[in-house]
Each structure stands twice: as structure tokens, then as C-alpha cells.
Design a protein that fits this description.
MarR/SlyA-like; WH-like_DNA-bd_sf; 147 residues; Arc Repressor Mutant, subunit A; DNA-binding transcription factor activity; three-stranded antiparallel β-sheet; 3 strands; mainly alpha; WH_DNA-bd_sf
Length: 147
């Protein structure tokens, strides 16, 4: 039976590889819509409701600075815009423009096809179980502080 440190190492290596695979797939899906994977991630974070850059960064698990850079690029290209934040004068909210929403919608068919292929490869119910396990792992990492 593998030791806990060995299992942790194997989990981390698998997560790093999976992250790379998801980023490559996201780049391939986003490119025809004129987006990058990072642009798609940030736009996706604000599709339901406008958020401050710090809130987007927390949701994505990345630095505020990296989200700020992408948000500024999106705003500069007319794909998103900053609006006043009633809860905080200086921390404006980011929201997609109609052009940004249209770009994300152009990705939807490729995204749906990729999801179908992945679910088919895993088999019935396995994608849902994978999501549950990964969400439990994220919650556990949040609980222990990642240290």
C-alpha cells in the first residue's frame, strides 16, 4: 500500500498534468472565438454576475495581478468593461460586454463536444464522480490551508 506522502505526490503530479491538459484543450477551443484560455476563464467567471478582480482571482485560485492583467486586456478589446461597485468605491466590478458574451457563446459547441467525448471516454457516471472527488479535494486543501 502506498504511503500518504507518495499518494500526495502522485495526486499533485496528476493534478499538474491535468491542469496542462485542460489549458491546452481550452486554448484549442477558445482560439477560433478570438480568445485565449485565460480570457475565457475570466469572462466565464463574470457571466452570471459582475465581480471585482480580487473576487475573480479567489474563485479561480490565482493571483489578483494575473486577473487584473487579463481583465485590462479584455476591457481594452471591448470584451468586458469595468462598472462602479456599490460595495467599494475603488474596487470596480468587471462584466462582459455583449461582444464578450458572444465570443464565449462561440465556444459553446466545441465545449459541449469536448464534454461529450470526455464523458464517453470515462463511462456512465464517472465524470460526475470525478467532479465530486475533485471538489472534495479542493475543499480539503482549503481547510488545511495548502500547507
Amino acid at each position: 500500500m502506498p504511503s500518504e506522502p507518495e499518494l500526495l505526490s502522485r495526486t499533485a503530479l496528476a493534478a499538474f498534468r491535468l491542469n496542462g491538459q485542460f489549458l491546452a484543450a481550452a486554448e484549442a477551443m477558445a482560439r477560433p472565438a478570438g480568445l485565449t484560455a485565460a480570457w475565457w476563464q475570466v469572462l466565464g467567471a463574470v457571466l452570471r454576475e459582475p465581480l471585482p478582480v480580487a473576487g475573480i482571482a479567489r474563485a479561480m485560485g490565482v493571483t489578483r495581478q494575473s486577473v487584473q492583467r487579463v481583465a485590462d486586456l479584455l476591457a481594452g478589446r471591448g470584451l468586458a468593461e469595468y462598472i462602479p461597485n456599490p460595495a467599494h468605491r475603488r474596487a470596480k466590478l468587471l462584466r462582459p460586454t455583449e461582444e464578450g458574451r458572444a465570443a464565449v457563446r462561440r465556444i459553446d459547441p466545441a465545449h459541449a463536444e469536448f464534454a461529450r467525448r470526455l464523458a464517453g471516454s470515462l463511462g456512465p457516471g464517472e465524470l460526475e464522480e470525478t467532479v465530486r472527488v475533485l471538489e472534495r479535494l479542493v475543499d480539503a486543501m482549503d481547510t488545511i490551508g495548502g500547507r
